[in-house]
């Protein structure tokens, strides 16, 4: 698959670009904000394109042109202002969905947030961020895209274990960013994950096996 | 009709409560934030209920219990922080939609913002507010509620003229808050406005006539 990674310079994004670049089955195009980031990626032999989530849908569609899938892993993580949360995590995300349709891309993977579907479990400290993620997810479910929504628990920079737990509601826990990236790749390879949304934390089931068993 | 006004203490809300209270065809229940506001309204012979858009759907459903319609005219108007915009104008609004379903209320009127449906026409200064209104409107359209979405132009405190212009896209202009409130009442009385969304500014067509001609 030809995969556009939106938020390629983010912490999960970097892992994901690396994995896709190494894979024999996929080709990656990294969407990043600045020309400088484009240059850096290209110097490492990675296709890169400049794209701005505060720009137009047409611009994003152009950046996505020719891809088979979009992975959205951009975002503020709740630490920027709520204005950017609205503009990037919600409207920016929905623009990429509209761009997917425009560019006739059907596969779409969203990196959401743990329990974003359950209002009562939203952390008080970053509630506005949860609101944005919740409605971006809702818009995706109501789109006609072949979506998968991944809601990872607390992100760590530890090395991945390759083993996870997934489900509609799993116990709050952590997961290395590397394993989130691996799970995204596994979802791209497993069509059973289409139209599924799930919480994701570290666990004891190998990733490829875990995503196959989603229901 | 028995109408719950959410945001009854707002500037449009006050006009609306007054109009509904005076009408022979409707009964109004004002939802406000504080106990003190409830008391003040009750002293004026108006039914009032305390409700918090940052509370639970169940609480709002309880406040709405027995009503036939909900009018949402709460909100920050873009001048509070973007965090409150997310919590009130978007998630708070959607909670009232969920509460409507829970309380088996089918009629729902949303006071939105001029051109909230067209991203390219969003004012740069209050763009996060527009994002919140846009997605609240989207969620309403995708609900099964009998909605009407009213997108008024620049709000003024002048006396109403009783004459308006409505349409999918009308030229940017202003409208007295009093006329917005009158238009809401006219929509409650005209079922042809169900499943319609429209821009609203001052014009030269009497309100009841204008809302009848929506298509």
Number of helices of chain A: 7
**SS elements, strand count of chain A:** 11
CATH architecture of chain A: 3-Layer(aba) Sandwich
Biggest sheet features of chain A: 9 strands, mixed
Return the average pLDDT of chain A rounded to an integer: 96
CA radius of gyration of chain A = 16 Å
Strand content of chain A: 15-25%
Shape, per Cα inertia axes of chain A:
globular
* Largest interchain contact: A-B, 21 and 22 residues
Report how far apart the termini of chain A are: 24 Å
With strands numbered from the N-terminus, the spatial order across the biggest sheet of chain A is: 3-2-1-4-5-6-10-8-11
Domain NAD(P)-binding (chains A, B): 7-190
Write up what this structure looks like.
Chains A, B: Residues 7-190 form the NAD(P)-binding domain. Chains A, B: InterPro entries: NAD(P)-bd_dom (IPR016040), NAD(P)-bd_dom_sf (IPR036291). Chains A, B: Pfam families: NAD_binding_10 (PF13460). 2 copies of one chain form a homodimer. The first copy, chain A, has a single domain (2-212), classed as NAD(P)-binding Rossmann-like Domain (Rossmann fold). Chain A is built from 7 helices and 11 strands. The first copy, chain A, has helices at residues 11-22, 35-43, 57-64, 82-102, 127-142, 177-189, 207-212; strands at residues 2-6, 27-32, 47-50, 69-72, 107-111, 146-152, 154-156, 163-167, 174-176, 196-202, 205-206. In chain A, helix 2 (35-43) links the parallel strand 2 (27-32) and strand 3. In chain A, 51% of the residues are buried. The mean pLDDT of chain A is 96. The interface between A and B is medium-sized, with 21 and 22 residues.
């Amino acid at each position: 698959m030809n995969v556009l990674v939106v938020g390629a310079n983010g912490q999960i994004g970097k892992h994901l670009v690396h994995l896709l670049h190494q894979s024999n089955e996929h080709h990656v195009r990294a969407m990043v904000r600045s020309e400088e980031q484009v240059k850096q990626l290209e110097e490492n032999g990675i296709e890169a394109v400049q794209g701005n989530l505060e720009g137009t849908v047409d611009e994003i569609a152009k950046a996505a042109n020719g891809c088979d899938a979009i992975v959205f892993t951009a975002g503020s993580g709740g630490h920027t202002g709520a204005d950017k949360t609205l503009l990037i995590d919600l409207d920016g995300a929905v623009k990429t969905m509209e761009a997917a349709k425009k560019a006739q891309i059907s596969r779409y993977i969203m990196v959401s947030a743990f329990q974003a579907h359950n209002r009562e479990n939203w952390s008080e400290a970053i509630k506005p961020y949860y609101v944005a993620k919740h409605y971006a997810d809702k818009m995706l479910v109501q789109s006609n895209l072949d979506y998968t929504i991944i809601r990872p628990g607390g992100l760590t920079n530890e090395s991945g274990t390759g083993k996870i737990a997934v489900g509609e509601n799993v116990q709050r826990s952590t997961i290395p960013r590397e394993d989130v990236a691996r799970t995204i790749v596994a979802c791209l390879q497993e069509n059973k994950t289409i139209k599924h949304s799930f919480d994701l934390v570290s666990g004891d089931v190998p990733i490829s096996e875990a995503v196959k068993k989603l229901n």
